[in-house]
Amino acid sequence: MSELLSRRALLRRTALGAAALLALEACGSGPRGPGAARALDIWVWQDAADSVQQAAVDRFNAAGAGRARLNRVPGDGYEDKLRVAMGSSRAPDVFFNWGGASVKEYADAGKLLDLTPVLRANAAFRRSFLPSVLQAGMVGDKYVGIPMRGTQPVLLFLNEAVFADAGVRPPRTWDDLLALVGTFTERGVTPFALAGANAWAELMWLEYLVDRFGGPGVFERVKNGDVRGWHDPAVLRAAQAVEDLLDRGAFGNSFSAVSYNAGGASALLSRGRAAMQLMGSWEYANQLAADPAFARDGLGWTTFPAVPDGRGDPEAVVGNPNNFWSVSADVRDRATAIAFLKTAAEDAYAEDLVARGAVPTTTDAAALLDRSADPAFARFQYDLVEQAPTFTVSWDQALPSAQATAMLTAVQKLFAGQVRPAEFVDALTALPRG
């Protein structure tokens, strides 16, 4: 999966008028002419991976279960276009999104179809997806999304040659991790490559640390609008752990100038200048494109370590559980929309995802992973997500845009040493509402 898919656009709140709706008419790639207006209108983020969704639409139409048309909407401004459409009488019937939190405003406004009765009535359909991922498609106690792409957990990547040269193993505990920081700094190797120019890369550390120290309930409270969640001791402990890492030189001295989009952090890892990098699973694909030999023979991966006295489960995962299909409450043909959602659970759909290098989150996908470009990496991801008791969505995707932007600013100040941990917590509690 590309990094583009993995991060929700946070700064694209541009003013769009009625003209945006007219422009979207040109986005369709399906049938036109007489009868086309009756086709299910399906929006997807336009990228190389949308061929999987087009194939699903083609099979659906060929099977005679209904008619559907796929609209490939350019990713630049996708959310703004969706917001305009959802506020009009021309909302898409089915649309791509990032899970429950990203569509909460629509669910709260009654603009989404509650899929809970559908999943309850069809146990086989419900059991087709990994529970921790299906849960990420919920708003409150209602299911409003069905997984439709590949999972993207955040992993700890490593340079195996650097580890072998130092005679050390990947960390299983926080003490292990701190010991490795000392080992690698003494050897002149940056312990962790960090794209500090991208606040979301720094955020991954806090997401995992809060989850490990306090469990998923801490951020769940925040996501559901309870600001008291930021006062949980786990948040302060996480910020203190980050400050300690900074004091130990865990990220080197110039990480704030390193950009992930420009490949800086990945190059530090592949060239052995850094030993590890905490990053989403798309890092593998990026390494494969930039340095195929390293990706095949020198790149390792493991889970985020356990922390002392943590209430969180060490098997819990953070990142991007999946992308989802949601259905507009004003869908023109509810039965056809539900029938289309079920294509995401079909074997052919999972096979297409694997062929595109993605790791599906259907419960029977494990049997397909040997067909992946790197079966070992695909199985590791799948097993990690399958066994995860919880899968917490990235905070910047889960929070409303205004909160997410202010939060990322606070994160960068913490990593830059401009605020102390207690001040960081104060900044989070003062985030704008809504």
TrEMBL record:
PROSITE patterns: TAT. InterPro entries: Bact_solute-bd_prot1 (IPR050490), SBP (IPR006059), TAT_signal (IPR006311). It holds the Pfam family SBP_bac_1. PANTHER family: ARABINOSE-BINDING PROTEIN-RELATED, BLR3389 PROTEIN. This is Extracellular solute-binding protein.
